[in-house]
Design a protein that fits this description.
This protein is α+β, with helices and mostly antiparallel strands. The protein contains 9 helices and 6 strands. It has a 4-stranded antiparallel beta sheet with strand order 4-3-6-5, sandwiched between helices. The chain is elongated. The two termini are 18 Å apart. About 2% of the residues have low confidence.
């Protein structure tokens, strides 16, 4: 199946000819949009294929999108017919594809059933109604390998050397070229020793050397602010993702627990690498 993506979706040529003009009201999923040696391709086939395309194709104009998909499907049908009756390997691959399609549909249904407005609102209220505004910090740092280097930097800063200039010269961290600026961050976004040091600082102050797994930091706390509790709409996508994750995990576990599953204990698993078993 290594050539399955060979066909270009927008390699459009005029291979389809239409002899019947239809109004928009007459078109349905069953509407035949092309035939290949008598095999029909319907509007439903085209719509289903469109749903599997990468996002960048979804914004194309309808004519270009339709023609591109139809051309690919015509090419696929011509190639399918050229194979003739499927051999054993192809039949098994078709079984696997069918299984995967049904499994995907089941997962989509489980996720959608969990993401109701009522569930989203309940999750938001439980999580955020009594939440306090969180504090965010804007800081800069200079990262060096040893405590001695960090202490020497602090001494230079005490003599009036500019923090950003010193960071550009001495910091080994990726923020060095930006003067050590880390931007705004909240709880949980930095490693614990760094976060704890920042939380105990006053705005404008310089820290003592702080050790993390990355090395030794000299930190300058630039400013702080309180971040308001996010609105429901701000959190909707994140809440939907969390609800879906829980529902999918629970749903799959439930279905497995309800199923009668019998596994055969094979004496060896080497056959998984033997492609010759798929030969007719």
């Amino acid at each position: 199946m290594k050539y399955r993506h060979f066909l270009a979706i927008l390699a459009v040529t005029q291979t389809a000819f239409f002899t019947t003009a239809l109004s928009a009201e007459d078109i349905s999923a069953e509407t035949v949009v092309a035939t290949v040696n008598g095999s029909q391709i319907t509007m439903g086939n085209v719509i289903a294929a469109r749903g599997t395309l990468p996002e960048q194709y979804q914004t194309l104009e309808s004519d270009e999108l339709f023609n591109g998909i139809l051309e690919q499907m015509i090419q696929q049908e011509v190639l399918r017919q050229s194979v003739g009756d499927p051999d054993k390997a192809l039949q098994i691959q078709m079984e696997n594809e069918t299984r995967a399609i049904f499994a995907g549909a089941a997962l989509e249904g489980i996720a959608e059933s969990a993401m109701t407005d009522e569930a989203i609102e309940a999750f938001y209220k439980e999580t955020y109604t009594n939440a306090e505004p969180s504090r965010e910090y804007r800081a800069a740092h200079i990262l060096v390998e040893t405590e001695e280097e960090a202490l020497a930097l602090i001494a230079e800063l005490g003599e009036g050397v500019d923090f950003a200039d010193l960071a550009r010269q001495k910091s080994t961290g990726p923020s060095g070229p930006n003067g050590g600026d880390l931007g705004w961050f909240g709880k949980g976004m930095m490693v614990a020793p760094f976060e704890e040091a920042v939380a105990a600082m006053e705005e404008g102050s310089i820290s003592a050397p702080v050790q993390t797994q990355f090395g030794w930091h000299v930190i300058k706390l630039v400013e702080t602010r309180l971040q308001d509790v996010p609105s429901l709409e701000d959190m909707r996508e994140e809440i939907e993702a969390q609800l879906a994750d829980v529902a999918l995990r629970d749903g799959v576990e439930r279905l497995i627990s309800e199923a009668t599953i019998e596994r055969v204990d094979l004496p060896t698993k080497d056959a998984v690498k033997d492609d010759t078993l798929l030969a007719d």
